[in-house]
Amino acid sequence: MGDESAIAERKLLVVDDDPPFRARLGRAMEGYGFQVQLAEGIEDALRLAHLHKPGYAVVDMRLEDGNGLDLVPQLRDVRPDMRVVILTGYGNIASAVSAVKTGVVDYLAKPADAEAVANALLAHEDSAPPPPPENPMSADRVRWEHIQRVYELCGRNVSETARRLNMHRRTLQRILAKRAPR
Question: pLDDT tens digit string along 117-164?
Fold first, then answer.
């Protein structure tokens, strides 16, 4: 089989360390005509990529065994024309730029719906940009996501997180105690 027929087969590798999300996305992508292989980490993804040579991949940025951005060049070594989409719950401009530099075709915030993922994978470079999302994250949600990300990166240390965010520790504790805004 040549590369064109493999893309026509729509082989897709989904790499995510969250089993329920991985399974849901895999089932949904099968509904879009993809033959889906599911991987929970980098080692598993590389094994499946070498075995199946998929034309498409959806990779979570933060995996239990490493960073999804580090996996992208390795996947493209297996198949240079592979179309890769990065998913992340901790989006920021620096990681989006890094993702684009590795050759991903899109960078989507979690929880991304299957339609957005399919559109990103199947979009052509010369096509019009996708319309803005119907329900984008609110400014409060974006702020909360940023605070949570810094908190995690600081090893869940409230004092260090407050210092880095230039915020009073008690204010940060109140924010962390609340549920995520919608």
Answer: 888 888 865 555 666 667 777 788 788 878 888 888 888 899 999 999
State pTM to two decimals.
Answer: 0.65
Task: Name the residue ranges covered by the structural domains of the chain.
Answer: 3-122, 139-177
**182: Cβ contacts below 8 Å, ≥ 6 apart:** 138, 141
Q: Do domains 3-122 and 139-177 have the same CATH topology?
A: no
Topology at the third CATH level for domain 139-177: Arc Repressor Mutant, subunit A (1.10.10)
Fold of 3-122: Rossmann fold (3.40.50)
Instruction: Please name which of 48, 49, 50, 72 lies closest in space to residue 60, comparing C-alpha atoms.
Output: 72
pLDDT tens track for 11-26: 999 999 888 888 999 9
